[in-house]
Design a protein that fits this description.
The complex is a heterodimer of chains A (330) and B (842).
Chain A (H helix, E strand, L loop, with lengths): L1 H21 L1 H20 L6 H26 L7 H14 L8 H25 L4 H20 L8 H8 L1 E2 L2 E2 H19 L1 H11 L1 H6 L4 H26 L12 H10 L11 H20 L4 H26 L3
Antiparallel strand pairs in A: 1-2
Chain B lengths: L3 H15 L6 E12 L2 E12 L3 E5 L6 H8 L7 E6 L2 E3 L4 H7 L1 E4 L11 H8 L10 H11 L15 H14 L4 E5 L7 H16 L3 E6 L2 H7 L2 E6 L2 E7 L5 H8 L19 E10 L2 E9 L3 E5 L6 H8 L6 E6 L2 E2 L2 H7 E4 L3 H5 L6 H6 L7 E2 L2 E2 L1 H15 L15 H14 L4 E5 L7 H16 L4 E4 L3 H7 L2 E6 L2 E7 L5 H10 L18 H6 L6 H18 L6 H26 L7 H12 L9 H28 L4 H19 L4 E3 L2 H7 L2 E2 L2 E2 H19 L1 H11 L1 H6 L4 H27 L1 E2 L7 H12 L10 H20 L4 H27 L1
Parallel strand pairs in B: 3-8, 3-9, 6-7, 7-8, 13-20, 13-21, 16-19, 19-20
Antiparallel strand pairs in B: 1-2, 1-4, 4-5, 9-10, 11-12, 11-14, 14-15, 17-18, 21-22, 23-26, 24-25
Classes of the chains: A mainly alpha (330), B alpha/beta (842).
């Protein structure tokens, strides 16, 4: 009898709390973003002006795309430090290979994608088959990718092709194209993760590789897949940067590593792996970008901006980890 | 002062106890009860343990034996009742009190740290006084010889067999010369020789007055060694006697007879004798030549005393582990991969392997059969929900909702979700390992009913259970295992609790695999040399030398005093920071913040350490540098240990914050570092910077502490296995926080080198030292999984990395090669280390 009552209690409390709990990361990060926008509108209206937004949105879009890539790796319990090399390589391949000839662009894109698949396979095989620590494997791959960057570019920037500048840097209906790319990729990742057989298995394996293995799922295949798809996303981000920036440097990826991890964490995905939140990750990218814009508009120097980001990050992790502990009943 | 009083009192008690005569009572338990929330684990236990004799505790799995031992050793506090030691009532038994009284316990799962050597395992677990007055190795050797454990002291404990680990555990307990020695199934993995040796030791210590409490399942052992026996059942004492006065039959009758308030479905009645599955000659993973058949419609039970190969057999049958022999399903032999595909495994450790705790009820129910609800790879939510609802109705799963977290369900309902998943995948065979563990009575019946239904439909069902009543009620045939052998196959009317228990406890099989023998010598002495933490030092030094000589042959200036000095100077800054990183990695963590911290500290110093500042200002500047490092280390440590951040998340946050602090202090490079300080720091001695010599000395000292001081063992203990380290009495949180502080302080030393190299407070510098330090540490052979590493290796790794960067410029190669070499170096080093480690472990 006592058992029956406690069951009922459970049913009620959980029944009410759960639908909210599932979308928790999305609610948290969206509300924070709205709050931030309100603060911006009040204290620093210039940071939410159309000009400021359309100027900074492409960067938010880039962070969103690399964040989606990092998300996939983090979901499998890893972390991908080869992101800077991957993005930089895509940038230089997309600029140096065509040398401003539009007709060579598609070949350059294919070459960049080929590198991405190779790097992803290397990471994936090292981590899932040879059981190397993800940090070591991806540091090594990053160095190899940078060696490719120098082989292609010699470390000097090159001017982008006009076609790419149109595709990546143009605007349609007032919005920069990169925003469309980021939105489309977000929808794709979210759809695949949440609605397809592959995605559902991918999340289950990330949540518990041991349970996945016990159920006979192909754990290693899915882990390799995470690294390959992540590289392809970095590659897209790199090509977009090559279009947005007139003369991109050979180190364009360096500044993206930390934000990529930060937006994944702020989006509510645990660094221990498992369920991923692609939409929240993209919103977090916008949030992080807007935070910088706000700081810039109120005259905070570059310095304090990163401190604000660190506080946001620490706060985010704190909020999620505390909720998580309550949620799991510990 | 209050702390002192009971301690003195305890010593008096211990002194009194040591004067007691054989036959006196050492420990008396009076009316002990223990309940875990609603579950009554022990009720009204009264036992007396006498000085100088072996007292066996007998009982089935779950009878309450381990709980009782945990109460005696102070791990659990009893809900009621009192413990007296000698004449004195112990009001509150804690592990510390127990240790002070001289109570030693050998756990069923040895508290041995895999990454430490045998000697270090002894020293980290035992009080230093046991090693005083003579070389530690001599004392340790004596302890090992006493239990007949003949392994090199410097061998890594990971390479010990399970039996050898048990002997090590026994050696630790014996060396404490305990008044009370608790042995929990000590012979489970021992062969005949080692068992005889152990019995010899037990006779010696009892002759010397120790009271031995011996937990066992085996009647044969009981007769050999024990004088008294107490039988527990359902948390109560069912009988106590002198061993010589009681027959085996009476003992078995006391053990069995558990009451189970669940009804079982009727057994298989048909005449069908077609064999749906047959297992022939399975060996490996502690299994020896296991054969049995599964006739169509029958449920097969696997029985035995816990830890006798049942769990391994289940994993082999599920295709999770390879084994020799054949498994045929419906007359077709299956490979391991096919088995993995077709078998549905219900694991016993539900929280680890059964459910993905982060996922919802629905997701947990469908992740192995998800394609059944999909068209062209796209899952139909409607079909999925309908499928899950149908199976949940059939299995009577009670869940607050499809999207509820799986852990919000009761144990029984979680298990039903696991069953739903198994059934949804339409398996060829169901392998259920302890299917009703942690499941309430009502749900148990449901689970039995479902298993019976599945079996009647023609799917073979194999159930492992430590509950003989359950096997009696559920199974048509029971295979009893002992030490990996089939000792009996019971069918028909013989499937009852009494027969099952009797077969399990009366078995006299011993571990007969020579490779697993406790007495057998470790394979080859040379092997352990190659697995020492410092093994990478020699090949690394060789690579450094060969590379140097090669470049020297191309360009003689490479080995000029000037260039060597330059390489070593750069290596010194990296070396100090990498030593700090080594500490973080030894603890199984990581510190991403070292790079920005080094840069930040240079910026801090750039305000004080200038030519126009007084000496006092400069000293203050250096003091501030160390205060800054200390603060960072404390913050990192606290975030990781007390705020539940992962090391990556915590040090990433400090990474970004410190970078911001640098930019707050200086927007642009400014504040030139004093030339005098630079000259002092960069002081040259031949081709060597004096600072480099300091680094070498620090590395050697740190290495010494790591290997030979308690602090070093503790550092590696927490990285090797936090839970075991805690059982051994390591202050885990303190060790972690101090480790991160030490890491930051070493980074501060590195930053002093760095400031003379950069020469100015530049907020953009230093960041690359995060990846650089990790690379150097990895090259040096420290494992990122914690517990093993070397400061000497790190030092050489830092030198090699700097040398490679220097070589590229010296040979006139482009930066392409610089990165290429770096990448190849990391990947190949990591691969080599990981492969050699796996080989030596396997």
């Amino acid at each position: 009898m006592a058992n029956g009552v406690s069951m009922l209690d459970n049913m009620q409390t959980n029944g009410v709390r759960l639908p909210v709990a599932l979308a928790r990361s999305f609610v948290t990060v969206s509300l924070s973003t709205l709050l931030l926008l309100a603060v911006c509108a009040f204290y620093a209206p210039s940071s939410v002006s159309w000009g400021a937004l359309s100027g900074s949105l492409p960067f938010a879009a880039i962070i969103a795309i690399v964040g989606l890539g990092q998300l996939l790796v983090v979901q499998q319990g890893g972390v991908d430090l080869s992101l800077p090399g991957a993005v930089s390589l895509a940038v230089v391949v997309a600029t140096h290979y065509p040398q401003q000839q539009n007709e060579l662009l598609w070949q350059a894109v294919l070459v960049a994608a080929g590198f991405a698949v190779a790097a992803g396979l290397l990471n994936g095989v090292l981590v899932s088959i040879f059981k190397l620590n993800a940090i070591i494997a991806t540091i090594g791959t990053n160095a190899l990718l940078y060696s490719g960057v120098f082989a292609v570019s010699g470390g000097v920037p090159s001017i982008t092709t006009p076609l790419l500048a149109d595709i990546a840097g143009g605007t349609t209906a007032g919005l920069p194209h990169s925003v469309y790319f980021a939105t489309a990729l977000m929808l794709l990742v979210a759809f695949v993760l949440k609605k397809t057989v592959i995605g559902r298995r991918f999340e289950a394996i990330g949540a518990s590789p041991l349970a996945g293995r016990a159920a006979g799922l192909r754990v290693r295949l899915h882990q390799v897949m995470a690294y390959v798809l992540a590289q392809l996303l970095y590659c897209v981000a790199g090509i977009l940067i090559a279009g947005i920036t007139r003369e991109p440097t050979a180190f364009q990826g360096d500044s993206l590593l930390l934000p990529s991890v930060a937006v994944v964490v702020l989006g509510g995905t645990s660094l221990l792996g498992g369920r991923g939140f692609p939409v929240s990750t993209v919103v977090a990218a916008f949030f992080l970008n807007q935070l910088s814009q706000f700081a810039l508009a109120v005259g905070v120097p570059f310095s304090a901006q990163t401190i604000i980001q660190a506080l946001a990050l620490g706060f985010g992790i704190g909020v999620y980890s505390i909720r998580w502990r309550i949620g799991s009943g510990k | 002062m209050d702390m002192m009083a009971p301690k003195i009192a305890l010593e008096t008690v211990a002194a009194q106890a040591s004067q007691s005569q054989p036959g006196d009572v050492t420990i008396r338990l009076k009316g002990i009860s223990k309940n875990f929330s609603a579950v009554q684990a022990l009720s009204d236990i009264n036992v007396e343990f006498h000085t100088g004799e072996v007292h066996a505790i007998l009982g089935e799995n779950g009878a309450g034996k381990s709980t009782l031992m945990n109460i005696i050793s102070g791990t659990f506090a009893p809900s009621q009742g009192e413990i007296s030691f000698g004449e004195r009532v112990i009001s509150r038994m804690t592990p510390e009190t127990a240790a002070a009284l001289g109570i030693a316990i050998c756990f069923q799962h040895p508290a041995v740290l895999d990454d430490l050597s045998v000697l270090e395992n002894l020293r980290v677990a035992l009080p230093g006084s046991l090693f005083e007055g003579r070389p530690a190795a001599v004392a340790a050797q004596e302890m090992l010889t006493r239990v007949g454990l003949d392994v090199p002291l410097s061998m890594r404990a990971e390479n010990l067999t399970v039996a050898q680990k048990h002997l090590l555990e026994i050696a630790k307990a014996l060396s404490l010369k305990p008044k009370v020695l608790i042995l929990d199934e000590p012979t489970a993995s021992l062969d005949q020789d080692a068992t005889d040796m152990l019995f010899g030791r037990i006779r010696e210590v009892t002759a010397a007055g120790t009271s031995v409490i011996y937990i066992t399942h085996r009647l044969a052992e009981l007769r050999q060694i024990a004088r008294r026996v107490t039988v527990l059942r359902d948390g109560r004492v069912r009988g106590a006697a002198l061993v010589q006065d009681i027959s085996d039959t009476d003992l078995v009758n006391m053990i069995v007879g558990r009451t189970l308030a669940a009804a079982f479905p009727p057994k298989f009645q048909g005449e069908e004798k077609r064999i749906s599955m047959s297992v022939r000659g399975l060996s490996g993973h502690g299994l020896h030549d296991i054969s049995f058949d599964v006739p169509r419609g029958e449920i097969i039970g696997i029985a035995g005393v816990a830890g006798n190969g049942q769990a391994e057999l289940m994993r082999v049958l599920a295709g999770l582990e390879p084994a020799k022999g054949s498994i045929r399903l419906h007359d077709r032999e299956l490979t391991q991969a096919e088995l993995l595909d077709t078998a549905a495994f219900m694991p016993s450790d539900r929280h680890v392997e059964g459910v993905a705790s982060e996922l919802t009820v629905r997701e947990n129910a469908t992740y192995s059969a998800i394609e059944k609800f999909a068209t062209a790879g796209i899952v139909s939510r409607k079909r999925e929900l309908a499928g899950v609802r149908a199976i949940f109705d059939e299995l009577a799963v009670k869940a607050p909702g499809m999207e509820a977290p799986i852990l919000s369900l009761s144990g029984g309902n979680q298990q039903k979700v696991v069953m739903s998943r198994a059934l949804l995948s339409e398996p060829g065979v169901i392998i259920a390992d302890e299917p009703t563990q942690g499941v309430d009575v009502g749900a148990r019946f449901e689970i039995y009913r479902i298993l019976r239904k599945v079996s009647e439909a023609g799917t073979p069902v194999i159930v492992n259970s430590s509950d003989a009543v359950e096997l009696e009620g559920l199974c048509d045939k029971v295979v009893v295992l002992s030490r990996g052998h089939v000792v009996e196959t019971l069918t028909g009317a013989a499937v009852n609790e009494e027969h099952i228990v009797a077969a399990a406890v009366k078995a006299e099989t011993h571990v007969d695999d020579a490779g697993d023998s406790g007495i057998a010598r470790a394979k080859g002495w040379r092997r352990y040399l190659t697995q020492s933490d410092n093994a990478p030092a020699i090949p690394l030094a060789l690579v450094i030398a060969v590379l140097g000589l090669y470049v020297y042959s191309q360009n003689a200036n490479f080995l000029s005093a000037y260039n060597v000095y330059n390489i070593l100077l750069l290596a010194t800054a990296l070396g100090f920071i990498a030593m700090g990183q080594t500490i973080a990695l030894l603890m199984g963590g990581i510190d991403l913040s070292v790079g920005p911290l080094a840069g930040f500290l240079v910026v801090v110093a750039s305000f004080f350490v200038n030519d126009d500042k007084s000496a006092a200002m400069m000293v203050a500047g250096f003091a501030l540098v160390f205060v800054g490092a200390l603060t960072t280390g404390v913050i990192n440590g606290i975030l990781i240990r007390f705020a539940n951040f992962t090391p990556i998340a915590a040090t990433l946050a400090t990474y970004i914050a410190i970078q911001g602090c640098s930019f707050i202090l200086r927007d642009n490079p400014d504040g030139y570092i004093s030339a005098t300080v630079t000259d002092w720091v960069n002081w040259q001695w031949g081709p060597f910077p004096a600072a480099f010599i300091v680094l070498v000395v620090v590395a050697l000292l740190a290495e010494y502490v790591l290997r030979s001081k308690r602090v070093g063992w503790r550092l590696r203990a927490v990285g090797s296995n936090e839970a075991t380290a805690r059982r051994l009495g390591t202050p885990v949180d303190l060790t972690f926080v101090s480790g991160y502080v030490a890491c930051s302080l070493l980074t501060a030393v590195g930053s002093i080198m760095l400031m003379t190299q950069i020469g100015v407070g530049d907020p953009r510098q230093g960041i690359s030292y995060t990846l650089g330090s990790i690379t150097a540490v990895v090259l040096g052979g420290t494992s990122l999984s914690g517990g093993r590493g070397t400061f000497i290796g790190t030092l050489l790794g830092a030198v090699l990395l700097t040398e490679v960067l220097n070589v590229v410029t010296f040979l006139g190669l482009t930066q392409t090669y610089q990165y290429l070499f770096q990448g190849l170096l990391i990947v190949s080093a990591a691969l080599i280390y990981s492969l050699t480690r796996r080989r030596s472990a396997g």
